[in-house]
Write a structure and sequence with these properties.
Layout (H helix, E strand, L loop, with lengths): L1 E6 L7 H13 L5 E6 L19 H12 L2 E9 L2 E2 L1 H7 L11 E8 L5 H14 L3 E2 L4 E4 L3 E2 L2 E2 L2 H20 L1
Length: about 180
């Protein structure tokens, strides 16, 4: 089974990245192939039109290929102004919905406060529906309060992230 851990925040050392690095460490203990895509790294291009009409750099195209080929997507969804990040939406512009049906996704939704969690989960789940991806209905919601000195300090958040991974992998195995 191929797994992508995707940190959807463009912020360097952001809370989403910290959460998803924990997810990556946990997934690395499983019997799966895993790749990490961190949208805070430089070099990802903005979508400007169909990939057969415009030349994009290798980093962007490789990320799209890795996402498309993965069986499971574990996505860190940062909340900015009651919406998920434009960087996250952008990377999905490179993905063909014709090649993603039946994949499975789990989410960690990370925000400064709790007001927008449900709205963003609904919006991101709708995006996944467009790609015909089966989503784990149990997302992990977390705020920056769970992080201290660049690490997750809240053991409950760690436990919920691990459970989200386990349940998402379990759903994927059933498909």
């Amino acid at each position: 089974m191929k797994v992508i851990v995707l940190s959807g925040s463009p912020r360097k050392n952001g809370n989403t990245q910290i959460m998803m690095k924990h997810v990556l460490e946990y997934v690395n203990q499983k019997d799966v192939q895993v790749k990490f895509i961190n949208l805070s790294e430089d070099g990802f291009e903005s979508f400007r039109g169909a990939t057969n009409e415009i030349n994009y750099n290798d980093k962007t195209l490789q990320a799209a290929k890795d996402i498309t080929e993965a069986d499971v997507w574990l996505v860190g969804v940062p909340v900015y102004n009651s919406m998920f990040s434009s960087a996250l939406k952008n990377i999905f512009e490179f993905i063909s919905y014709k090649e993603t049906e039946g994949k499975t996704a789990g989410f960690a939704i990370v925000a400064g406060g709790t007001i927008s969690f449900g709205d963003v989960q609904t919006l991101f789940t709708q995006l996944m529906s467009y790609f015909r991806v089966i989503t784990n209905p149990t997302a992990v919601y977390s705020t920056g309060d769970a992080i201290e000195n660049g690490k997750i300090s809240d053991e409950e958040v760690k436990s919920r992230l691990n459970e989200m991974v386990d349940k998402t992998l379990e759903i994927a195995k059933k498909n």
